[in-house]
Design a protein that fits this description.
binds nickel (II) ion; Metallo-beta-lactamase, Chain A; binds manganese (II) ion
């Protein structure tokens, strides 16, 4: 599965010829200044929660590529009020079969207000099942016992976990999360973007290695095969 990292919590995967983009935050991300938002095309934009650092470029990308926004009911409704007609509302525990694969919206422990102060529902994460790979994007979250349910829902090929600490899990908790979800290949996100979440990359990789797991840190703008 082709995986492209756009910085912070934003990445895209290609499944059955469809481009699935998560949590676009590029324009205001100093580290992603070489990424051109106007060049990004998506068939679906999946948003884990309403915070600015996850939704800032969603409207523009949705408009320029006629994408469908998939998120919780409150967030999809907020985008519809701004003229983004194509939306698919979900809520926690629910699954839906899309044309690229099945998506399940699962719990995250965090907060979720939209950039203008509108209530953004409760934050979540996604499990994406496909013929190719099945993965979990935890979204912004603390380590939570709910993650122990994930192996009952899916056998994961990889997972995208926040590792930056302060606003989300840090490395130490993310290693435990990787155990809970029974996944040995972790892609790190939500680190380095702001002063509060700068991390030591080598120490982070080492912590996962010690637990018999692999931490993949993808350069911004880079596409890898997962
Ligand atoms: Ni957040
Ligand atoms: Mn965030």
């Amino acid at each position: 599965m082709k995986f492209t990292f756009y910085g912070h919590a934003c990445f895209a995967v290609e499944i059955n010829g469809k481009n699935i983009l998560f949590d676009p935050f590029i324009t205001h991300n100093e580290l992603a200044k070489d990424i051109k938002v106007e060049d990004i095309r998506a068939d679906y934009i999946l948003l884990t929660h309403g915070h600015q650092d996850h939704v800032a470029d969603a409207a523009q990308i949705a408009k320029q590529s006629d994408a469908t926004i998939v998120s919780n009911f409150e967030i999809v409704s907020w985008f519809q009020q701004q003229g983004i007609e194509k939306g698919h509302p979900m809520n926690h525990g629910g699954s839906w079969q899309f044309d690229f694969g099945k998506v399940k919206y699962v719990n995250a422990v965090h907060s979720s207000v939209l950039p203008d102060g509108t209530y953004g529902g409760n934050p979540g994460g996604f499990i994406v099942y496909s013929d190719d790979k099945t993965f979990y994007n935890a979204g912004d979250t603390a380590l939570t016992l709910d993650m122990q349910l994930i192996p009952r829902f899916a056998k994961l090929d990889f997972a995208v976990l926040p590792i930056g600490d302060n606003f989300t899990m840090g490395v130490e908790d993310a290693v435990i999360a990787a155990d809970f979800i029974e996944c040995n290949k972790i892609v790190g996100m939500h680190y380095d973007t702001f002063g509060y979440i700068k991390i030591d990359h080598d120490a982070a990789r080492e912590a996962f290695n010690k637990a018999g797991k692999e931490l993949v840190l993808v350069n911004i703008g880079e596409t890898i095969d997962l």
